């Protein structure tokens, strides 16, 4: 039977990866499948958005390289908020180089991603060596990896046979470091097991989620939490501008942050209701 009918809690045991287990436990404990994508360029705004949405999310997603005044105090504060509000951190780094290079990009440089991000993601364009390179750094730290099997943007070149190869590569990763996908549907269940492969459960995290807009004029395409969670069987909704959009407009900042909090509550409710309907609880 499809994992879509199973509860998050009942799937914890089917994962070896500690980050995947913690995410499922967190979703169940907090009753939220919402990940907020905090794509703002100032440290203070980033932290304030995270403060505003912390109680409503299972995970916060960052693009740490867009922060203009980045310093390691930011990642320390993010980690403290993650403990305080009980959410995980996903650095959306989209690694896309050979194994040796991504090991360095993941562990080192200014951002030291592996030291604070529970989950990160990668394109499989370079081949499975990218998984080996990232696992070398992340596996000892209990981190997890998502492969971008499908994308939300118009005209993207992932999906199709490429997406299927991502599923095969994830199944063939015997370390368990690869624990899921960025995808638009339950892609793991659409790809037949190859001889010798065992069935494995994976997380599906899905961006391109909005309740008020269909697109952004730059290729992004939005679906509703109900379409993503109930109809497509995905596990986590990733929402960016639908939640922090008020911050992009001129006007009273404290009012904007109140709106951010309200939108987070709204998306959290929509995502969780879709999950309850899907699992018929
Ligand atoms: O296919 C994808 C994969 C990702 S990770 N489409 C996406 O939009 N994303 C990311 O999700 C993107 O980089 C951005 O951070 C977020 C969507 O933001 P929104 O403002 O459109 O909700």
From TrEMBL:
Substrate binds at residues 39, 61, 152, 220, 240-241. It is found in: Nucleus; Mitochondrion. Keywords: Decarboxylase, DNA damage, DNA repair, Glycosidase, Hydrolase, Lyase, Mitochondrion, Nucleus, Pyrimidine biosynthesis. Coiled coil: none annotated. The active site is at 92 (for ompdecase activity), 94 (for ompdecase activity), 97 (for ompdecase activity). GO terms for cellular component: mitochondrion; nucleus. Residues 33-260 form the Orotidine 5'-phosphate decarboxylase domain. One of its GO terms (molecular function) is orotidine-5'-phosphate decarboxylase activity. GO terms for biological process: 'de novo' pyrimidine nucleobase biosynthetic process; 'de novo' UMP biosynthetic process; base-excision repair, AP site formation. Its main location: nucleus. Transmembrane segments: none annotated. Belongs to the Nth/MutY family. Bifunctional DNA N-glycosylase with associated apurinic/apyrimidinic (AP) lyase function that catalyzes the first step in base excision repair (BER), the primary repair pathway for the repair of oxidative DNA damage. The DNA N-glycosylase activity releases the damaged DNA base from DNA by cleaving the N-glycosidic bond, leaving an AP site. The AP lyase activity cleaves the phosphodiester bond 3' to the AP site by a beta-elimination. Primarily recognizes and repairs oxidative base damage of pyrimidines. This is Endonuclease III homolog. It comes from Pseudomicrostroma glucosiphilum.
């Amino acid at each position: 039977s499809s994992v879509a009918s199973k509860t998050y809690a009942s799937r914890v045991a089917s994962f070896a990866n500690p980050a995947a287990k913690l995410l499922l436990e967190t979703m169940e404990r907090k009753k939220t499948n919402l990940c907020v994508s905090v794509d703002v360029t100032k440290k203070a705004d980033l932290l304030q958005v995270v403060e505003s949405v912390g109680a409503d999310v299972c995970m916060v997603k960052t693009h740490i390289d867009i922060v203009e005044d980045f310093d390691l105090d930011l990642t320390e504060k993010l980690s403290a908020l993650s403990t305080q509000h009980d959410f995980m951190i996903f650095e959306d780094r989209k690694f896309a180089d050979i194994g040796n290079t991504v090991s360095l990009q993941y562990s080192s440089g200014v951002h030291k991603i592996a030291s604070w991000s529970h989950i990160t993601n990668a394109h499989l364009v370079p081949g499975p060596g990218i998984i080996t390179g990232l696992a070398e750094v992340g596996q000892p730290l209990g981190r997890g990896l998502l492969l971008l099997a499908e994308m939300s943007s118009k005209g993207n070149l992932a999906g199709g046979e490429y997406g299927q190869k991502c599923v095969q590569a994830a199944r063939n990763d015997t370390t368990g470091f690869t624990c899921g996908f960025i995808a638009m549907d339950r892609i793991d269940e659409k790809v037949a097991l190859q001889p010798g492969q065992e069935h494995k459960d994976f997380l599906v995290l899905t961006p391109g989620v909005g309740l008020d807009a269909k697109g952004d004029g730059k290729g992004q395409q939005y679906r509703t939490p109900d379409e993503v969670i109930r109809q497509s069987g995905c596990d986590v909704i990733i929402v960016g501008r639908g939640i922090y959009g008020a911050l992009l407009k001129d006007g009273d900042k404290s009012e904007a942050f109140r709106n951010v909090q309200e939108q987070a509550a709204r998306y959290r409710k929509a995502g969780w209701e879709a999950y309850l309907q899907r699992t018929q609880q």
